[in-house]
Design a protein that fits this description.
The chain is α+β, with helices and mostly antiparallel strands. The chain contains 9 helices and 4 strands; from the N terminus they run E-H-H-H-E-H-E-H-H-E-H-H-H.
């Protein structure tokens, strides 16, 4: 899996603070410099003033200003299962690689599941891995070897049969029906900072599946570089909060 930041609002925390200052000023923010808009906020310099205001907004649940700034991420090589989970978030915009227009006809079936075309979950090869609704706990070496063998054989066979159906003239949009749900997909997604916090509330949480959790943690790392005060505050004070209905 790879996650990169493609594009994002410039100076996002100036935009967030300006949105918020607009709500409580008689003057028009459009006529003022950023320093003038922030004049009455506590702090020795502009960075400290931003920290004061953003901390105040987040601690009081004033989340609207965080909707003005947006980031676009490119995600490579997540499973279709993970894609189905993240695309449930209705305020995120997506572009998803098509299996109607992209045919995986040149993939080597022997490499499938070993870094190629199908994501292999850690529980296929880690005897100590504990997942949700699992029968039993840690397993012995013999069991894990068997598990890995069945998994790898199954995904290889699916891809071989998919490619055979393409060779027999079946359209990619129909041949794909035999592919596993672990088949990799690339995606572009955009969301505003408020939504990013909501996605993180739900998908970086311990009860989420390992793959979407890993993707969300990577998104959060990039968000911390893009919008540092906001996501440092989020990490220190809000992450893993119990009430995860909406930020
Ligand atoms: C651990 C976990 C397990 C899950 N298991 C399942 C499962 O088994 N089956 C399944 O179908 N889904 C499952 N989901 C998905 C979950 O039910 C949500 O559909 C998904 O996470 C989207 O989040 P959201 O409801 O907050 O909506 P989002 O689309 O992210 O919207 C954000 C917020 O906007 C508001 N909102 C958006 N649309 C509406 C609306 N139409 N009406 C009212 N308020 C709205 C809500 O406050 C919502 O929280 C699971 C999610 C998690 C995290």
């Amino acid at each position: 899996m790879e996650v990169t930041l493609l594009e994002a609002t410039d100076d996002p925390e100036e935009v967030i603070c300006t949105g918020a200052r607009n709500d409580y000023m008689s003057d028009f923010v459009g006529d003022q410099t950023f320093e003038e808009r922030m004049a009455s906020i506590e702090g020795d310099d502009i960075e400290e003033k931003k920290r004061t205001l953003i901390g105040h907004l987040l601690s009081h649940g004033h989340y609207g200003p965080f909707e003005h700034v947006q980031a676009t991420f490119a995600v490579k090589g997540i499973s279709r299962s993970c894609m189905a989970q993240i695309t449930r978030h209705r305020h995120v915009s997506f572009d998803v690689q098509s299996m109607r227009y992209v045919a995986f006809d040149d993939v080597d079936p022997e490499a499938v599941g070993e870094g190629e075309m199908v994501v292999t979950p850690p529980s296929a090869s880690d005897p100590d891995w504990i997942g949700r609704n699992q029968k039993g706990g840690a397993v012995d070496d013999e069991t894990i070897e068997k598990r890995e063998e069945i998994f790898q054989e199954s995904v290889k066979r699916s891809v071989e049969e998919y490619q055979e159906l393409l060779d027999l003239g079946m359209p990619p949009e129909d041949a794909r029906f035999v592919l596993p749900i672990g088949t990799e997909v690339n995606m572009v997604m955009s969301m505003n900072a408020r939504m990013l916090m909501h996605v993180a509330d739900m998908r970086a949480a311990a009860d989420s599946q390992w793959e979407i959790r890993e993707m969300t943690e990577r998104v959060l790392d990039l968000a911390k570089e893009w919008c540092p005060i906001t996501f440092a505050y989020y990490e220190e004070n809000m992450k893993n909060r119990k009430n995860r209905l909406a930020p």
